[in-house]
Amino acid sequence: MNDTVDKLVIFLAKRDGIDKLEKTFQEDIPICFQACKLACGTSGLSRKAFRTGRFLTGFNALRRNPGSTLTLRLLAVLSNSGEMVYFFFDHFLWLSRIGTVDANLAKKMSFISAFGEAVGYVFFIIADFILLNEGLKAEKKLRSSEGKDNEKEIQKLKSDRIMRLMAVAANVADLIIALAEIEPNPFCNHTISLGISGLVSAWAGWYRNWPS
Predict the structure, then answer these.
(1) Which of 25, 32, 61, 131 has the fewest CB atoms below 10 angstroms from its CB?
(2) What span, in angstroms and rounded, lies between the C-alpha atoms of 127 and 97?
(3) Whether the Cβ atoms of residue 97 and residue 103 lie closer than 8 Å to each other
């Protein structure tokens, strides 16, 4: 029990941990309890407050993981740039909704933010598929060769594959939500599509931050 509590504290200590907790409330509560719309809205605004300054994490992500090839480096720049646009303009969306700046800016800020978000997700997904393919090739090569450390490397590749599949699931779900904001359409804006996308995104995010 204490171990579980310790892990939860570590999870919530991360900026992503708080973000995913807020997102779970924001996306999932309306599906199950329509009476909680007020709590959902409050959760959505507080979630944006927790993300203040998060657009700068894109620079750190590029510094820590620039990519092993030219293609992956380019995809990393494009994906993180899109995400940075999303988080940067999301600040203005939040400020307009709480009345700090002109409320009429909300719609425009929401569009720009969602557009940057969608662009970022597309390149994140492409990069993950490339890395998934590379991981499968590496595993096949290890299985065809002999070595006592091969099994450890194979398990490491399998764990990495699961995390990347979770990332793809979350990014595809978030892409659908972003498209619903950019260009409203019957599929993306349907209650079921948005509900499932919100659940997938939130829970995939939880797993990536707290896999055990």
Answers:
(1) 32
(2) 34
(3) yes
Distances (CA, A) of 25 to 56, 187, 201: 25, 23, 12
Cα(25)–Cα(34) distance, rounded to whole angstroms? Answer: 12
**What is the rounded CA–CA span in Å between residue 121 and residue 86?**
11
CB proximity list for 68: less than 8 A, separation 6 or greater: none
Q: Rounded to an integer, what is the distance from CA 77 to the centroid of its chain?
A: 16
Helices 15-32/37-50 angle, 10° precision? 160
- Mean pLDDT score of the chain: 78
| Token output for 151 | 């099994």
What tens digit of pLDDT does each residue of 40-72 get? 445 455 555 555 556 667 777 777 777 778 899
Q: Structure pTM?
A: 0.71
Q: What is the pLDDT of residues 182-211, one digit of tens each?
A: 988 999 999 999 999 999 998 998 888 887
Distance CA 56, CA 194 (A): 28
Q: Is 135 exposed, middle or buried (0-12, 13-18, 19+ CB in 10 A)?
A: middle
DSSP 132: H
